[in-house]
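May I ask for whichever protein you like with its backbone structure tokens?
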Amino acid sequence: MRTVSAIEDWIPRIVGTALVFGALTGCTLDFGALRRRDASTDGAAPCRDAQVEICNGIDDNCDGQIDEGFDLASNPSHCGMCGNTCSLAHATAGCAGGRCIVASCEARFGNCDGRADNGCENTIDTVAHCGGCGRACNFANASASCVMGSCAMGACVTDRGDCDTTPANGCETPLNTAAHCARCSTACTFAHASASCTAGACALGRCDAGFADCDMMAATGCEVDVATTMNCGACGVACAPPNAAGSCATGTCAIGTCNAGFGDCDSMVGSGCEASLDTASHCGRCGHACAMGVACVAGTCADEVIVGIASGGAHGCAARRSGAVACWGANSNGQIGDGTNVDRLSPVATSMLSDVVALVAGNAHTCAVRMGGGVSCWGRNAFGQLGDGTTTPRATPVAAMGITDAVSVAARGTDTCARRMGGGVLCWGDNSSGQLGDGTTMNRSTPAVVSGLLDATHVGIGGSHACAVRTAGTVACWGANGQGQLGDGTLSFRFVPTAVRMLTDAVEVAPGAQHTCARRRGGGVDCWGDNTAGQLGDGTRTAHSTPASVMSLSDAIAISSGLGFTCALRMGGSVVCWGSNAFSQLGDGTTMDRPSPTPVAGLTDAVEISAGDTHVCARRMTGSVVCWGRNQSGQLGDGTTMTRAMPVAVRNLP
């Protein structure tokens, strides 16, 4: 067994260990029961009661406790064990759980690896750690620096710029483009051309279509339009075909318009308009040859000169000097006479006619006086208006029965009349209002004699009435009279010719739908009947059952009436019209009704006029024909169906 002395020697070692353990674990040991070491027991040094307790494993102040007051778990001077002082590089040290820790870093330093043993090992004013660990400075396409803990963008790399002045996206803009060449917003632009940037300098790129760099100077870009006749397709390539005005389309030279009297008959641009159009082989147009022995005069074969025109409901016709006829417009009833029922927007030849001397058009039929006095008609025939004894429509001319001495013919609506050589008048067709003048209301499919009329010098037909000028200058009318269109001062229908009142010097008569006009010997014009649209031309809209003078008209040489309007050809070649203008049939460029004569725009050389239902045509001194007004069926002959408020030329006439 161990002796007491041996046990006493062991106790201090246990106590010392226990104290250390207690400090580490927070346990408190009561050593009051332990016998104190002093000289009386083991000869050791006496207790030092007055000493200050220090961390040395000894009870320095003789209170029976060793190293009290020292926390080895959190005291940085005695961290984990007495005398273990925490000292870290560039840091304020702390102690936690008996281990040294970094409490804070010195300015400009950081504990970036998270370890305590090497303290705050990194400076934080570098581009890798700017203002904080791992806070790297990085700018696209640019250098970087760290200034006072903040990242700063440095110089851009070559060919890059910070054009939006936003450091966050660095030097975002290439400086080798046309928009930013060498410097931000320094754009490369050239007139009519693309641009590029090469080695920091602007360069001219591809020219825009239709332009070229003819002066070889980049500063002016592609300065020349190569779609002009001076530079057509390339610099300095002129487009100047002979006898023509050139045109340049998509860089290719073409013939624009031929000079007057010339034509491009070989269709070769190089030779231009090589053919004279005043020759028998090319008369007026390429390939148009005159008949053998027929001369070409001013571009027209002598036998093709237009000598007469006629306007119907929605079609028109022209008679040539040769006796041939050409028609255009509506053809649903065969009124063009070409053997079809197809509408024609420009003139086509009427079949089987070569000896016509006079021509007239009704609503949907056409008639012609032929050399020798016969009359031929074609088109609609529901009321017998063709005079062939039937009511069958005809798409080519048929002879009106029993006429051999006609000198002129008149038509309107669904009726036809012919004036005979001696002054008598024959009529046929619709007779529901007595408009055939034979004393009945019976329709006639063959010519019937107008009663009591043997001295007619001119005949005209209206909507449902007809009138004739007599040798003495008087006028007689018959048929419908609901608007006073017979001029006898009444509204009574007349089945035989009845004299118009107060008219003794008439030379021409022009019945319309429900009104009538007469040209007087001195050039004045009188009208009577319906005046709803101002068609009497007296400045009012009041109907008259006896003649009233047309305002400001004293030099008329021809008149023609349509449905609610009238036109007059004046001495000198101008034309005036008045009345309804819903379809621009007055030719003044408007659709405004006119109660007094209004000039037709741009027409100064007319020699003949003819009014249809809602359009008018005029033959000019040159032989050409112009028309204006409604055009829904091509009755203007200009190749379209567009209504025209002013005269347009009929194609291919003469």
Q: What stands out?
A: The longest helix spans residues 4-25. The first strand starts at residue 91 and ends at 96.
